[in-house]
Amino acid sequence: MTVRIYVPNDTGARSVGADDVAGAIDQQVRAHSLDAIVVRNGSRGAYWLEPLIEIDSVDGRVGFANVTPAGAVSLFESGAMPTVSHPSSIGLVESLPWLREQQRLMFSRVGIIDPLSLDDYRAHGGLTGLERALTLGRQDIVTEIKTSGLRGRGGAAFPAGIKWQTVHDTVAAQKYIVCNADEGDSGTFADRLLMDADPFQLIEGMAIAAIAVGATAGYIYLRSEYPHTIRIIERALGLARDAGIIGPSVLGSAHTFEITLRVGAGSYICGEETALLESLEGRRGVVRAKPPLPAHVGLFGKPTVVNNVLTLAATTGILARGGTHYASLGRDRSTGTMPFQLGGNVMRGGLVEVAFGISLAALVEGFGGGTRSGRPIKAIQVGGPLGAYLPASQWQTPLAYEALAAVGAMLGHGGVVVFDDTVDMGEQAEFAMAFCAHESCGKCTPCRIGSTRGVEVIGRLRRGEASRKNWQLLDELCETMELGSLCALGGLTPMPVRSIMAHFAGDLLSSAPSRALGEVTV
Amino acid sequence: MSDADDADALQGLLADSPTTAEHLLPLLQRVQQRFGFVSPIAIRQVSAAFNLSRAEVYGVVSFYGDLRESSVGAHVVQLCMAEACQAVGCRALARHAEKTLGVALGSSTPDGRVHLEAAFCFGNCALGPTVRIGDRVYGAVSEARFNALMASLPRQP
Questions:
Q1: If DSSP states are collapsed to H, E and C, what string results for A289-332?
Q2: pLDDT tens, residue by residue, B58-79
Q3: Three-state DSSP string of B53-120
Q4: pLDDT tens digits, B23-50
Q5: Which of A128, A164, A253, A517 shows the smallest number of beta carbons within 10 Å?
Q6: Contact assignment for B25 to A385 by CB distance below 8 Å
Q7: Which residue of chain A comes nearest to B120, CA vs CA?
Q8: Is A455 helix (H, G, I), strand (E, B) or coil?
Q9: pLDDT, position B98
């Protein structure tokens, strides 16, 4: 039987040379006339092992980590297929504790299947959610999502079932499903990995949403910073259309659903749902005031479900296994699993999907293995550029929406970025404001002006100028931005800044010991 | 390439595009891709085709970072400067890049070969520092790997 040799083909693995490795292995297979083929799978999301090559064996898939093209040649130098007893094997991939200890629901197929093989997708449980949805009434689908307790994974954590119910209940000749794939938060890559490695799950989820609310058209708004992902989604949409998963008759039913891919143009704010809608309509990505909600007046003025990639993907499993099963995982009102993304200065970075409630320490030290540099961790930023920096005293916090809110932090889209003790937190505070100034759409004053003033005030603090006065000014500025901004960009930029004021004040006030607090400089 | 060829190419792009507002951004992206920037002439012709004011079209061009108002170096080299890459030394890498290329972030080398600029996140946050060149994303970019990437750039793209 032909042996399959898997070489990952996602953005991450490719960024560290997977394509060259695939070429080298292909050459070896031909040179030694082996009965084998190279399959380009997605990635398991175990990025510290990439390029991670897997070879079929009777016991499972055998892994070889951090393979280089030269390493690939030496793997095959005996002329035989490398096995688990090869000295550079890391054993069976499924047995790696890092993977075994995860609870992968959304990411169950990721890295296992060929992302663009519908046969693989079906063989691993794909389309069962959509098939079941087609046997249910529209309201029953919405109810299933409500039962699951699924909350929006983009960051705002709004209950998905309630959003769907609102669009379901709104009477209109045309409704839309919009997938927010504008994953701009630094430290997050779960949407990207899911689309790179299991794109049909997103398409299936969008089709379920469309049937539930009565929409016939959908858009995927995908950021231009993901060039490989764009190609994968383009091809997946074509394959799904050819297979009748989307199109005039969804899986042979009376439902019509078309999906159009739109690519972003380098604007972070377009990840905000109303700015995204403006962008889809061909305008500047300027935030709309709410109400009206997009669920009532959305794309082209029609009722629209705007959901994140992971939210839509999660609905496939919820429909397949039932909302009650999903609700049985997690804690409090944080039900189900969350794909956490471990990045930055971390030894074993990657995608960790577990039930809500794992502590930050268990995630970063258990899964992550501490810093890549080997130095002590100083701060962990959770939730992207608008998320708080957590000091050691908060690392026992369970990762769940409510528990993080209680310590002045937020989960956001699940990004976890580790910093070692060389980081200057004053510089991070200044960057938070500078990023907001760079990305502000300019509609509301607290965000547009406040962020620029924030950079200036933090700069003065870092230079030790009039510390007491500027500290108070920064505090008031943060409050103004929090209370007065139109959307989460201006409203949440103070979160990382305040966390640094509360826990790393020394870095902010640092450098000028000669100046006393309160001394005014001109 | 002559002005006349450019004008023909632009007309070709316009002829292939529907001209309702929702198609404005995709069209401008194709103009950007074809010419490397969106010129004032292009803005004038696009606005006429879409029945929009030049101000409206310019507003869109000036809002989006991917759309440029003038041409830049042949190879666009983007360094991720966001938090996850900051945690693994992208600021030092940026200083190295500026020094070796002799230009500041946001500018092009005098020979027009490279345009160096900051970007924010390529979704490669466990394998930083990350650099994008054209449509390729590179991870774990040390100073040595950066030098090798620069050396491997073709003279003409």
A1: CCCCCCCCCCHHHCCEEEEEHHHHHHHHHHHHHCHHHHHCCEEC
A2: 999 999 999 999 999 999 999 9
A3: CHHHHHHHHHHCCCCCCCCCCCEEEEEECCHHHHCCCHHHHHHHHHHHHCCCCCEECCCCCEEEEEEC
A4: 999 999 999 999 999 999 999 999 999 9
A5: A517
A6: no
A7: A186
A8: helix
A9: 98
Q: Which amino acid is at A446?
A: P
Q: Which residue has the higher pLDDT, A1 or A291?
A: A291
pTM reported for the whole predicted model: 0.96
For chain B, the maximum distance between any two Cα atoms, rounded to a whole number of angstroms, is 51
Q: Quick one: pLDDT at residue A482?
A: 98
Contacts of A50 in chain B (CB under 8 A): 127
Question: Cα separation of A170 and A173, whole Å?
Answer: 10
Please tell me which residue of chain B has the smallest CA distance to A420.
B87
Q: Which two tokens stand for residue A463?
A: 């230079």
Q: How far is B50 from chain A (nearest CA, A)?
A: 11
- Cis peptide leading into A199, omega within 30 of 0? no
| The residue type at A161 | G
Q: What is the DSSP letter of A24?
A: H
Q: Residue A399's closest CA among A323, A337, A492?
A: A337
Q: Give the full edge-to-edge strand order of the sheet including A258-263.
A: A258-263, A217-222, A176-181, A304-308
Choose among B79, B86, B142: nearest CA to B106. Answer: B79
Tokens representing residue A35 in the block: 């009965």
Cα separation, A340 vs B84, in Å, equals 14
> Which residues from chain A sit within 8 angstroms of residue B64, using beta carbons?
265-267, 284-285
The reply to whether B132 touches chain A by the CB within 8 Å rule is: yes
Name the residue facing A187 among B56, B84, B127 (closest C-beta): B84
Reduced to 3 states (helix: H, G, I; strand: E, B; else coil), residue A440 is: coil
In total, the C-beta contacts within 8 angstroms joining chain A to chain B are 159
DSSP string, A128-188: HHHHHHTTS-HHHHHHHHHHHT-B-TTTT--BHHHHHHHHHHS--S--EEEEEE---STT-
pLDDT tens column, A238-269: 999 999 999 999 999 999 999 999 999 999 99
Q: Which two tokens stand for residue A135?
A: 């046997």
